[in-house]
């Protein structure tokens, strides 16, 4: 059992919190108010960033002390969105939200994952016809081991997990978000994920 704080109570944060609770973890969900987030982060071992990516860097940098020594699982993508709310460009071209979070929070173990799929797949990967791939980017091997365990609790099989290496590899997975509006316009709002065929 791990003490987990989920920052963000929208569709992503809500579904992750429910699934992690079902898996037997002690989960606290914090909304966007700084006080609630700080208290949740302070008492957790693992913090999940499910806040909107455009404001994540500022929001989490304000929690530097509360996040010290913690694992930060970043599932957000920082994008410039169009009038329809779908992403049109990356907010941090040439870098990534994951990298900037690690730079701003040097005493926190940032692991980027679960950001290359529709949110429904995060907690139900087996619902897809084809096996999806979940990627991990981060500097700390032990932190990634803990996150792999949490992914397994969410239904991800070990063979579906790919460790890409350091946090700089997050810029590749974050760029995959640019597929999303085109896939949705072509096929509708149906569950999908990036999958590496082998």
Structural summary, described in words:
- The structure is a single chain.
- This protein is α/β, with parallel strands linked by helices and 198 residues long.
- It has a single domain, classed as NAD(P)-binding Rossmann-like Domain (Rossmann fold, 3-Layer(aba) Sandwich), CATH 3.40.50.
- 37% of the residues lie in helices and 20% in strands.
- It contains 9 helices and 9 strands.
- It has a 7-stranded mixed β-sheet, sandwiched between helices.
- Strand 1, helix 1 and strand 2 form a beta-alpha-beta unit.
- It is globular.
- The model has no long low-confidence stretch (mean pLDDT 95).
The CATH homologous superfamily is named NAD(P)-binding Rossmann-like Domain
- What is the CATH architecture annotation? 3-Layer(aba) Sandwich
Low-pLDDT residue spans: none
**Domain module tally:** 1
What fraction, in percent, of the residue positions are helical? 25-40%
Spatial strand arrangement across the major sheet: 2-1-3-4-7-8-9
Average pLDDT works out at 95
* Percent range for β-strand residues: 15-25%
CATH fold naming: Rossmann fold
Tell me how many strands there are.
Answer: 9
The CATH C-level name is: Alpha Beta
Sheet with most strands: 7 strands, mixed
Helix vs. strand class? alpha/beta
Total helical elements = 9
Give helix and strand order, one letter per element, not per position. Answer: EHEHEHHEEEHEHEHEHH
Shape descriptor? globular
N-to-C CA distance: 34 Å
Rg calc: 15 Å
């Amino acid at each position: 059992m791990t003490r987990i704080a989920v920052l963000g109570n929208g569709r992503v944060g809500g579904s992750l919190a429910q699934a992690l609770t079902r898996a037997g973890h002690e989960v606290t969900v914090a909304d966007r108010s700084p006080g609630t987030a700080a208290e949740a982060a302070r008492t957790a071992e693992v913090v999940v960033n499910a806040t909107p990516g455009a404001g994540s860097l500022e929001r989490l940098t304000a929690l530097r002390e509360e996040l010290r020594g913690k694992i930060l699982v970043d599932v957000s993508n920082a994008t410039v969105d169009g009038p329809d709310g779908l992403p049109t460009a990356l907010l941090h071209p040439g870098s990534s939200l994951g990298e900037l979070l690690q730079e701003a929070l040097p005493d926190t173990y940032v692991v980027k994952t679960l950001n290359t799929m529709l949110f429904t797949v995060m907690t139900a990967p087996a619902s897809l016809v084809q096996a999806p791939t979940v990627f991990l980017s981060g500097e700390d091997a032990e932190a990634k081991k803990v996150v792999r365990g949490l992914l397994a609790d969410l239904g991800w099989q070990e063979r579906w997990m790919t460790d890409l290496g350091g946090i700089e590899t997050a810029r590749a997975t974050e760029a995959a978000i640019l597929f999303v509006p085109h896939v949705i316009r072509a096929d509708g709002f149906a569950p999908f994920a990036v999958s590496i065929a082998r």
